[in-house]
Specification:
The protein is mainly α. It has two helices and no strands.
Length: about 70
Amino acid sequence: MTVLFGTIEYFEREIEFHLAEVEKRERLREEIQQIQMKLEEELRNDFICDERLRAECLQNLTDACSRLTEDYVV
């Protein structure tokens, strides 16, 4: 069925499309946060190294997650 610009159906589809995009972005944000928490836990508890290296790895992980969130979620 063809939906003409400006009709109720057109705007319904547009709104549904944008809502789906928002939902998808929110899921990605949550997934990135879950992965970050898992990796942080591994770095803090399982990774044996110098504390400076651990701090650098944790900061790099935070920066990477921030970049991914900006790239995929915004």
